[in-house]
Design a protein that fits this description.
The complex is a heterotrimer of chains A (322), B (377) and C (318). Chain A is mainly alpha-helical and 322 residues long. Chain A is 77% helix and 0% strand. Chain A is built from twelve helices and no strands. In chain A, helix 5 packs antiparallel against helix 6 (129-142), helix 6 (129-142) crosses helix 8 (179-217) and helix 8 packs across helix 10. The model of chain A has no long low-confidence stretch (mean pLDDT 80). Chain B is of the alpha/beta class and 377 residues long. Chain B contains eleven helices and 14 strands. In chain B, the strands form three sheets. An eight-stranded mixed beta sheet of chain B has the order 8-9-10-5-11-12-14-13, sandwiched between helices. In chain B, strands 4-3-6-7 form a four-stranded antiparallel beta sheet, with helices on one face. In chain B, strands 1-2 form a two-stranded antiparallel sheet. The longest helix of chain B is centred in the middle third of the chain and has 18 residues, at 218-235. With 318 residues, chain C is an all-alpha fold. Chain C has helices at residues 10-33, 36-53, 55-59, 91-127, 129-144, 147-162, 173-202, 205-212, 217-256, 264-273, 276-279, 282-310, and strands at residues 167-168, 171-172. Chain C has twelve helices and two strands; from the N terminus they run H-H-H-H-H-H-E-E-H-H-H-H-H-H. Residues 314-318 of chain C have low confidence and may be disordered. In chain C, strands 1-2 form a two-stranded antiparallel ribbon. The chains are: A mainly alpha (322), B alpha/beta (377), C mainly alpha (318). Chains A and C meet through helix 1, helix 6, helix 7, helix 10 and helix 11 of A and helix 5, helix 6, helix 9, helix 10 and helix 11 of C.
């Protein structure tokens, strides 16, 4: 891959992250409950005020505050949580990252694989029964907020059928006979939330892939491939799919922002102890440092994911590398 | 630059007999008849089923092609020339149906199933498409696309295929190293050459060029035509060139087939047809070509539009626009008549008993020093 | 050559333009009505519009804790076709009233989004140069941000600035915040689309001609670019509406809604917090969920049908 392309994308990502940090700083100033706002509360004694001022460095001029803030952020100091009794925000976040990543990651992977396969097949066998049914279902799923899907699955499989345990990461107060049992328990709790995220995403990927395949199949190089006497399967695999996948990669990147929203709400439905439930709790408890920390973390994560998607796209499509 | 005699590998297993043309040995496919003509197309009809009706894009076209010959199919856009060529290897969309007889080396292609027909694609008949930018896969390297038929159709190993691809590139005048490039990294002319190299990969008997030079500028056009001519003589290829540009046909082809609205208007050797055109459409086509030495102010255009092929007019399809139209033309389809000089015409001006003297259409006389007005021979 | 044209009557020209424009609309309308998906979408939207305009006529005033007509968590039956919620309120009543709130918020948010997005898109595309570069940088930035999280972060800030009890146009502050926040986070995508279209319109000959006769930028943008971009704006607006309803639902679900003016998302939030899913009280959330899905689906269908009708893309055929 051309180093120019790589350089451009990485530097663009870095610039964006810088902007995000700056943006966060501005929010920090504006946020209700951010130290100096709190300090305007007339009930706080002058002494407490002075203490806070010194602690948060509010008596320094703004540019210096900015530098301090950036440095502190880079070092991993994101402030203290209001709700969690002054625990460092970083620690609070660290506890919750893994469940979210697992949920989100597994859901995306499943959705991408199934969605692309389904979409490609629908497009290839256009007008067939799979196409109609698949398209209809995809459209409906696309219109459902993720948490609605989650609620319905919960209703059906937990409450009605009792196939899966309700909510949470693992059963409470249970001792496991072996690590194997523990894993199975995780798995049973894990299944529905991941399925929810996957179902929510599949619709988009399959619809996109379908139209992408249809458009690709109309291209002249497919006619060339047929003229070469290649077998259908090979044409699909070597000529159609590599080109049709390109919009899908772009979609994954664009989607990330929205999937985050979905994942948050899915966590709420299933009481999944990840960043999503943390966000909602923080919102309810007006724990602004935590909210801000989540925003920073998720924004940077999305930027990085976008960067990765861009690089993958560059690896797949030589035309953008020039 | 000679063609490599390394040639196709296991394909030789197919060849029972071979035929010598020029300096090359042609391995013939199993079912081929070594004494048959290379290509005999009889009464080819290709119809497209649309919502609004059936488009009779090719309606009774017949022609032949011999080993080492170059046939130029000419006509306006939409006259069915590309459809004719694609019909030979059944490369049309699913709403098309083809009838008639297509005999390749004596093998009847129309009765073959899709799987059986695939055997002949690229290995006997290959196509160089118009607009190589779109006809090449943008995400694969050029040499890989050339090597693909070698690996897939001839069973060569990847290394051998890549080597051969390099040789083919050299053959068409592209440095071997450039094969590692992607299509968008090559210039238009080089892309077209690459397509030609790709078309030659399996040593086909016939190469069809579908407007191979249309998208190129004149200098590059000349180079491509020169290349085709050289390959033809060196490799003993037969060419079918499809174009609306008569000068290309005049320069490169032995015979020409003039099509109009899905039917053959005139056919014969380029020399005869271009010098003494008989069919009014042919004459109009030639007259529409600007004469660089003449001084005419306006182009002699053909007024009107080609007919709607869902509902073609009864009788001669050119009748609505023909300056020599007669009553019979509107009612009866003109029969094809052969003449002594090898020309075939479908026009009521030349009935069964005609002696073949061309009936000239009235044209605006040319002015200027070099204008011949068709009078010189 | 001397001018042989008769003097041009500006009034007649304007009328002629209108005539052509109206005819264009009528043709588009006819083509739209031929598309099954678009029509289905339209019918559904109209049905909901009726519910949104006059909920009181259909189910009576919005029930509150004090005016609840049933017992807690009554399953669907004769008196309450959709059952009751945890306060004993009739679910049908709640769902129908939720229509207006959800749709109004969606509508306002869409207006902001499209207004900001289209204006910025056209200006950025037409003016070009460094202004374009700056606007695009900002747009890209907003596109990358996870807008949902941004919304959650912005909401309390705006609330704090505005004050919890303020009301705008009869809408409580929390809901208004949702409108602002959706607008602030969704405009970027519209801006990008409109800018792309502006760029391609800008290349067309008539813009050059207008410039040649000395027309100013504002005039060109208003009279030449806008009419050619408006089709895309219309199709985009419908899809933005779908997205706004979805976003509002999600934002309300996580707690930003107003319990006293419950949108569908707010009803779902109440359902979740009152434990309905675990208790099997499916009627608490199936009606509002179905309503959301229907509305979003309808807008999506209509939007893509409109897009096809208004922006025909030529497909190359051999």
């Amino acid at each position: 891959m051309g180093s120019g392309y790589l350089l451009r994308k990485v530097s663009s990502a870095i610039v964006t992250i810088v902007f995000i940090v700056l943006f966060n700083f501005v929010l920090f100033r504006l946020m209700p409950g951010s130290p100096d706002r709190l300090l305007r509360n007339p009930h706080i004694t002058e002494q407490t005020r002075a203490e806070y001022r010194a602690r948060w460095g509010l008596d320094k001029p703004i540019p210096e505050q900015l530098v301090n803030y950036v440095v502190a952020t880079a070092k991993g100091d994101l402030g203290l949580s209001v709700y969690f009794r002054n625990q460092p925000v970083v620690d609070v976040l660290a506890n919750r990252i893994l469940p979210t990543v697992v949920l989100f990651g597994a859901g995306e992977v499943v959705a991408i694989v199934l969605g692309i396969a389904l979409g490609a097949y629908s497009g290839w066998r256009r007008g067939g029964p799979v196409d109609y049914v698949g398209n209809g279902i995809s459209l409906i799923l696309y219109s459902m907020p993720y948490f609605v899907i989650g609620m319905l699955l919960l209703l059906l499989f937990v409450t009605a059928l009792h196939w899966f345990p309700p909510a949470g990461l693992q059963s409470l107060g249970v001792r496991y006979a072996s690590i194997f049992d523990e894993l199975i328990d995780y798995g049973r709790h894990f299944f529905l939330p991941v399925t929810t995220v996957a179902i929510g995403l599949i619709g988009q990927y399959s619809i996109l892939m379908r139209s992408s395949i249809i458009e690709t199949l109309g291209e002249d190089y497919i006619t060339t491939a047929r003229a070469k006497g290649l077998k259908s399967g090979r044409i699909l695999r070597d000529h159609a799919l590599p080109n049709a996948m390109l919009p899908a990669v772009t979609l994954v990147a664009i989607n990330l922002g929205y999937v985050v929203a979905g994942a948050i709400t899915v966590e709420v439905v299933f009481n999944w102890p990840g960043l999503g439930t943390l966000t909602v709790d923080a919102l309810a408890n007006r724990d602004y440092p935590v909210l801000q920390g989540i925003f920073l973390l998720l924004s940077i994560a999305v930027v990085v994911a976008n960067l990765i998607a861009d690089l993958v796209y560059g690896a797949l499509d030589p035309r953008v590398r020039t | 630059m000679t063609a490599s005699t390394a040639g196709p590998g296991p394909a030789a297993a197919d060849a029972v007999t071979s035929r010598r043309v020029g300096r090359r040995e042609w391995p013939l496919p199993k079912q081929a008849d070594p004494d048959a003509r290379l290509l005999v197309v009889e009464n080819l009809r290709t119809y497209f089923a649309l919502e609004s009706g059936t488009v009779r894009a090719v309606d009774g076209v017949s022609f032949t092609l011999d080993y080492g010959e170059a046939l130029g199919i000419a006509g306006e856009s939409g006259c069915g020339k590309t459809t004719t060529a694609l019909s030979l290897v059944r490369l049309l969309p699913s709403n098309a149906s083809t009838r008639g007889s297509i005999k390749l080396m004596g093998i009847e292609l129309t009765s073959k199933s899709e799987v059986q027909l695939r055997r002949y694609r690229w290995r006997e008949i290959s196509i160089v498409f118009q607009g190589a930018m779109n006809a090449l896969n943008p995400v694969r390297r050029v040499r890989d696309q050339i090597a693909e038929p070698l690996e897939q159709r001839l069973g060569q190993k990847p290394a051998a295929a890549r080597k051969r691809a390099g040789e083919l590139l050299e053959l068409v005048g592209i440095p071997r190293r450039r094969g590692a490039a992607y299509p968008h990294e090559l210039s238009g002319g080089m892309r077209q050459r690459a397509m030609i190299a790709m078309a030659l990969a399996c040593d086909p008997a016939i190469v069809i060029g579908d407007e191979p030079t249309t998208a190129l500028d004149v200098m590059v056009q000349a180079q491509i035509l020169e290349l085709l001519e050289r390959l033809r003589s060196e490799l003993g290829l037969s060419l079918i060139l499809i174009t609306h540009d008569l000068s290309v046909i005049a320069e490169t082809c032995d015979r020409t087939l003039i099509m109009y609205a899905g039917k053959v208007a005139e056919e014969g050797s380029v020399d005869v047809v271009f010098r003494t055109p008989r069919h009014p459409y042919t004459q109009k086509l030639l007259a529409a070509f600007p004469d660089i030495q003449a001084d005419r102010r306006t182009l002699d255009v053909i007024p009107g539009q080609p007919p709607d092929l869902r509902d073609p007019p009864p009788g001669c399809r050119f009748a609505p626009r023909c300056p020599m139209v007669m009553e019979v033309c509107r009612e009866v389809v003109p029969p094809e008549i052969w003449f002594a000089d090898g020309v075939r015409v479908a026009c009521h001006l030349y009935p069964e008993d005609s002696d073949g003297t061309p009936v000239l259409i009235p044209v605006e006389p040319l002015v200027g020093a070099g204008a011949t007005n068709g009078k010189a021979t | 050559m001397t001018a042989t044209a008769t003097t041009l009557d500006p009034g007649a020209l304007r009328r002629e333009r209108w005539r052509l424009r109206v005819r264009g609309w009528r043709e588009s309308g006819a083509r739209f009505l031929h598309r099954r998906d678009g029509v289905i979408g339209l019918v559904i939207i109209l049905a909901f519009a009726v519910l949104a305009i006059a909920p009181d006529l259909l189910v009576g005033p919005l029930q509150t804790v004090t005016t609840a007509t049933g017992h807690k968590f009554e399953p669907p039956g004769a008196t309450h076709p959709f059952g009751t919620d945890n306060l004993g309120r009739d679910m049908l009543n709640l769902t129908v009233h939720g229509t207006r709130i959800s749709m109004v918020i969606g509508l306002l948010a869409t207006v902001i989004t499209v207004l900001v997005g289209a204006v910025l898109g056209i200006i950025s595309g037409y003016v070009g140069g460094s202004l374009d570069a700056v606007i695009m940088r900002v747009t890209d930035f907003f596109l990358v941000l996870p807008t949902f999280v941004l919304a959650l972060v912005l909401a309390p800030i705006i609330l704090d600035i505005v004050g919890l009890d303020a009301a705008f146009f009869g809408i409580k502050a929390t809901l208004f915040v949702i409108v602002i926040v959706i607008g602030a986070t969704s405009w970027a995508s519209t801006a990008r689309i409109i800018r792309a279209q502006t760029l391609s319109v800008k290349e067309r000959a008539f813009v050059d001609r207008a410039r040649a006769i000395g027309a100013g930028g504002g005039h060109i943008m208003r009279r030449h670019i806008l009419p050619n971009v408006v089709n895309l704006i219309v199709a985009n607006t419908v899809l933005v509406f779908a997205g706004s309803v979805l976003t509002e639902t999600t934002l309300s679900f996580v707690g930003l809604g107003d319990p006293f003016a419950p949108s569908w998302g707010q009803i779902l939030n109440a359902a979740q917090t009152s434990g309905a899913p675990g208790l099997g009280i499916w009627w608490y959330y199936v009606p509002p969920a179905t309503a959301i899905v229907l509305v979003v689906l309808a807008f999506t269908l209509m939007g893509s049908a409109l897009d096809d009708v208004l922006n025909p893309r030529l497909r190359s055929r051999r």
